[in-house]
Amino acid sequence: MSASMLLLPRYLLPVRPARELQVGMAVRVVDGNIDAVLPRAEALARFPEDRRVELDRHVLMPGLVNMHTHSPMALLRGYADDLALDTWLQDHIWPAEGRWVSEAFVRDGTRLAMAEMIRGGTTCFNEMYFFPREIARVAAEAGVRAVIGNPVIDVPTPWASGIDQCLALAESLSDMVEAEPLLDMTLAPHAPYTVDDAGLSRVAELSATRGWRVNMHVLEAGWEVARSQEMHGEDTLSRMDRLGLLSPDFVAVHMVHLTAADIELVAERGVHVVHCPESNLKLASGISPVAQLLAAGVNVAVGTDGAASNNDLDLLGELRTAALLAKGSSGDPAALDAWAAIEMATLSGARALGLGDRLGSIEPGKAADLAAMDLSAPETQPEHHVQSQVVYAANSRQFSHVWVAGKALMEEGELTTLDVDRVVARAAEWDERLAVRAA
Ligand SMILES: CSC[C@H]1O[C@@H](n2cnc3c(O)ncnc32)[C@H](O)[C@@H]1O
Ligand SMILES: [Zn+2]
Q1: Hey, whose CA ends up nearest to atom 9 of ligand 1?
Q2: pLDDT under 50: residue ranges of the chain
Q3: How far apart are CA 312 and CA 277, in angstroms?
Q4: Cα–Cα dist 356/354, whole Å
Q5: 188 and 247, same domain (yes or no)
Q6: Disulfide engineering: 305 pairs with which of 100, 115, 170, 279, CB 3.0-4.6 Å?
Q7: Which domain does 112 fall in, by range?
Q8: ipTM score here?
Q9: Is position 286 within any domain?
Q10: Which PANTHER family match (predicted)?
């Protein structure tokens, strides 16, 4: 028997066709996929047996795609703030991870992150953290779509002793995600400064033979530029290119410190870029030249980074920051307008994951990964330009409903697959354990 449902929103923001807001439309969902987008009256007449969901104060849009997360780090939110990337990582985060990260930490942190992301309209996230099988298990349990990065890092961690073990563990992650319809995986080398040439060559080779995408922090902080010259005698992107990494299967996260030649190379190779403006601002890493990347034809998506550097997983807030920064840093108020910002947080993310034909817009044949936002709050009234209200005015708690593959993960603001009180209670236990206030 097919499970069919009619979603009946006040406004539809489908992302494709581009720059279109539709009124009086219905979205029919059958067996987890979008079956049709058609006028409301026609839908009601043709499909009288379908379950109906009235969204008369809402805009219905594709679910948001958070293109860079370290979900378990939700338990390190506020642990070490107001620091630069190198001090933050080396003196605070890596020691804490060495001491505390375990399967239990990853499980509880991921549940906390899932609750926050679903409440904020996110239906898919691109992950990078230790114990990736545990993250995969929690995402599957919560019903969220996820691409799970298998870390590759040249230092011992509580999860793996070094590159050999990281790569061996990628095989067991692969077996696991193949059995889960909402999951996929990438290889996730941490950064150019934590994986040597031999390790990166093995990543490039495995990516080519196994078809795994590669997801990596690249050129986040200014010191990476000099360090690459010192350690390797060449600039970062030339090195990545020599090692065979730069391709349309490569997702480069941050990309703050780029030259004009770098931008040209990235565009030529079809590399995808993930912009994480709030983490870059908070760690004082700088501002990615997004307007120039877009002008060069690069696919730019958006991510929050972990809650230890952001300090939230609110992708809607992130896209507002991205839109405002693009204007402020380019001097062009039309840079990254509201339509472009919404596309960046939906379809561009899907494309970066190789899922552009399945996700990121409301079109027949795509997965029903959807989010509805209630616009009736004072903050989003009146409704002159709905796309502007979404980007420049709304807060993420105005998302009331979220579906992944047609399954409701949030209805009328209530999560259906996670017990928020339990998730928060568990986080509080970690708070006690880490006892950062006493330290
Ligand atoms: C290999 S698992 C992830 C690893 O990355 C660390 N991390 C978190 N945020 C950042 C960032 O912005 N730049 C570099 N590294 C980051 C995280 O703490 C884990 O150790
Ligand atoms: Zn990161």
Answers
A1: 306
A2: 1, 438
A3: 12
A4: 6
A5: yes
A6: 279
A7: 64-352
A8: 0.99
A9: yes
A10: AMIDOHYDROLASE-RELATED DOMAIN-CONTAINING PROTEIN (PTHR43794:SF11), AMINOHYDROLASE SSNA-RELATED (PTHR43794)
